[in-house]
Amino acid sequence: MSLLPPSFRSKYRHPDPANGVDEVVEFRAFTHGLQPETVPAMMEAFTEDWRRFGVDAWNEVPNHWRPDSDDRVGWWSLPTYLADEFVAPLLGVDPGTCILQPHVHWTVQCLLSAPEVAARGTEIVVTDGEFPSVLHSVQQWSDLIDVQPRIVPSQPDGRPDVDAILDAIGPDTAMTAISHVGFTTGALLPDDDVRALVRATHRHEGLFLLDGYHSASTMPLSLTDLDMDVFTGGLLKEASGSAGNAFVYLRDGLDITPRLTGWFGDADPFGFNTQPRPNDDVRRRFLGGTTSVASMYHAVEGVDILLDAGLENVREHSLALSSRAIEHAERLGLSLRSPRAEQQRSAMILIEVENAHALCEYLKTKGVYTDSRKDAYLRMAPFVWNTKAEVDRAFDIIGDAISNGEHLDAPILSTGGPVT
Ligand SMILES: Cc1ncc(COP(=O)(O)O)c(C=O)c1O
């Protein structure tokens, strides 16, 4: 399995080393990606566009994203322009089907506010392993609309119970909303399972929503082939787009009118009419009030890097490094909580270790950044900016720590709260 060249690292800006180590190894792509090297210039471009053009920037700014093209862009068009140029290829779908969103929470809230969802049935099928932006939203809306959550328990290892979800889908299903990768398990739902769930949902005329936060940007996707209705995710993590940048894909022809649509998504926003009118461009109906422009200047710099590398190569690199990490873990006698099989493996792996918090803190003192869950799992995602040598170095340290117990006395270095 081939790796991206070590020079790939230089496409990203790396954190400052601390605690006397020379270099930091960042394995937390599942939380917040490293900063692409072009981001400082893009943020400068934002401040300059604001200064130079002021209000007129809403209509036109230089096309920093495609400098060689004649496409005209303005702040008004950025949510759809950047989605067409960068997010659609990232998801392998046609232009015109995606739009930038502030976060997944907003997208799910918009969907739930649409009468076309409630018209399809009285239940929304989810598992207890969904991220709160889905799981909590479904429960909150059940107080407002005549649609109840049908929460399917996960298996003891935290992975979705596909048979139980299939059993739960039926004539009452308005929507099925499932994670493509479990955020606590790192388990990727294989295409055959997704296809079976979509087919069952469609048989009962329900909508299918896939939360692809941890799959998009890490592998090629086949949403059209999967007959997906709605796919959502964010650019914060492996896509290195930072906060404020998420997206939604809506199947071509899906007519949906979120009651949360704001004036930015109206058919005639500057008519300031007394009645709202749904935009003909369905994806724009997922806009609320004034969009947060600054975040869009750093949204797709990382996507550009990944597309340039090729998503097949990104996936190969990620699998090659996680395979090496798994081999090291097994050599040390550690078990894997996340799947070993490649077709079920995401970019992140979880390794079972005792005193995982202490080990995570100890690794930090050595410049190796991972995270830990429930004091029982070490979570890591060796990604495109990581090398084989970094994985080896991390496991040398883990091996030493486990054999001599040094991590149990490690100082606590974390300054912030928990990370997602
Ligand atoms: C599966 C999944 N969905 C969604 C999110 C983020 O949701 P939001 O964009 O609403 O913060 C995360 C964050 O870690 C996640 O793991």
UniProtKB/TrEMBL annotation:
Domain of life: Bacteria
Entry-linked SUPFAM superfamilies: PLP-dependent transferases
Aminotransferase class V domain ranges (all copies): 118-367
Database matches in Pfam families: Aminotran_5
Organism, scientific name: Longibacter salinarum
GO molecular function: kynureninase activity; pyridoxal phosphate binding; transaminase activity
The keyword Hydrolase appears for this protein: yes
Lineage: Bacteria, Pseudomonadati, Rhodothermota, Rhodothermia, Rhodothermales
Alphabetically ordered keywords of this record: Aminotransferase, Hydrolase, Pyridine nucleotide biosynthesis, Pyridoxal phosphate, Transferase
Keyword Chloroplast found: no
GO cellular component: cytoplasm
This protein's name: Aminotransferase
GO BP annotations, alphabetical order: anthranilate metabolic process; L-tryptophan catabolic process to kynurenine; NAD+ biosynthetic process
